[in-house]
Amino acid sequence: MMNRLFEPILFDLKPFHWIYRRISDHNFRGFYHWHQGCEFLFVHRGQGRVIVNQQTYDLKPGMLFFFQPFQLHKVHVEVSHQTPYERSILHFDPISQGKNLHSFPGLNTLFYRLHNGIYEKQAFDLSDRSLYVAEMFKAFDQSIATNNWEEDCRLFLMQILSCIRVNTQELETSLHQNKLRSLRYSETIMQWIEEHYTETFDLEKLSTELHLSKPYVSRTFKRETGSNLTEYITIRRIKQACHLLQMNNDSVELIGEQVGIGDVSYFIHLFKKTIGTTPHQFRLSHQVM
């Protein structure tokens, strides 16, 4: 069901990972995941939705999305041979690449705010500059095969940030605008789950507080996000469990209880099914203390 929740990206050889115009026209199933680097996702073709930070954004040609390190997100796209999903993706190490922006205070401030979540907005409509962006991406893809890839990567990141900065006023007011925009039901549901995922899940309580029927809650969440409630709650719990396993020495049983899964055997089973390893093995290979 969920087999790639954490996607490790190696930055040992190069401080970035580049995917140019990848096309999916069948068997594309979006999944919730996170990774250790920053990500820019640009959509060349496709229609769908992106779920990140308990918000849902429309996915369409010309959209650029930014994901922070270790930020849970999902791309949900309905694909076919007639309506393929084509995208370019840049994963990069924010530490090494961020240092390159220190001589450019405007871009450095913009990146700092994006990287640290000061701007709530994570989707940018660049459709009016899509031809320029497409040429920029093509030039970068051709240049990284040369010996100047380090300089070209720095320039490329600055070009992307410059595209975002074109609408500086829009960015400055995005927090206010997001709060005024009517929330989709799925966003309200995700906000409720964020407050209650450490408890035993109660669909009756959720539907009552939202003044909606239980079937409508389940059906609407599935339609708007492409996944069911059980999958989302499980992933949210396991992501928090990963964080706790890295940051403290609490027992596996206690961590399971802290994320709303009181049966330790079931917690271990669910963790291994989702992450691909047991909680103990994950702790040994990822603990930062």
Automatic annotation (TrEMBL):
HTH araC/xylS-type domain mapped to chain residues: 187-285
Highest taxon in the source lineage: Bacteria
GO MF annotations, alphabetized: DNA-binding transcription factor activity; sequence-specific DNA binding
Keyword vocabulary terms for this entry: DNA-binding, Transcription, Transcription regulation
Signal peptide interval: none
Transcription listed as a keyword: yes
Keyword Ubl conjugation: no
Protein name: HTH araC/xylS-type domain-containing protein
